[in-house]
Amino acid sequence: MYMFLYTLLNFIIEDSKNNKILVVLFEDTCFLCFLYKPFINTLHKLFKENNIKLKIKKYNIEKNDYAPNMIVSRGTPTFLLYHNGKGNKLAEYKPNDIINKIDEIIESPKNMKEQMLEKVELIHERMHLFGYLTMWMTESKMIENMLIKRHIKDLSPKKSDDENIYNDILTSLIEEDIHRNDLIEESLDYSKEKIKEAEKGCFVAAMMMANELIDEEKKKFSDIK
């Protein structure tokens, strides 16, 4: 393990003698890292398309140990700049600040900085869409659980069930996203489609519950007669 990490670090250091390299330290359980991921992928694509001499490397500190002499981070995401064989930890971690710092590093043309800042705005949209998706999936699951409990009389309800649903769904969505490698626009499109599916699922579950309640009321009324 250490030999691999040491070799990786040496490769970055050697490569940085001819190129500027931005290393992003991240963790799978870091929510900010989750939000930034497609944004970082998009920056990488922009740099390649515009022949910008700045490489981006990502390093998961949750799954890998630090190599000897590697810059240590106490939080994520953390951005390290390697240049001329040396590495420095950037103080910036907020998207706008990172873009301003990158702009200093690469001396990008004005339209390039504008493009990067436009992508920053999409991070906020990603967060809002993710919130909507989690909400709709939580509501749908809660209604489904209510339906199940109505039909399985022996099922002893747990008071903590509903409280845990949101956290379970949040965790599962983040875990699913880990395996995706999309750009920020692709991520937004994917979330919008998932929201449509979740809204539909919630509506169907709510209609099933409503129909059952109506049928029960009809039965009660007919029994009275």
Automatic annotation (TrEMBL):
Domain Thioredoxin, first and last residues per copy: 17-100
InterPro entries linked to this entry: Thioredoxin-like_sf, Thioredoxin_domain
Pfam families: Thioredoxin
Segments crossing the lipid bilayer: none
Name listed for the protein in its UniProt record: Thioredoxin domain-containing protein
Species in which this protein is naturally found: Plasmodium falciparum (isolate Camp / Malaysia)
Lineage: Eukaryota, Sar, Alveolata, Apicomplexa, Aconoidasida
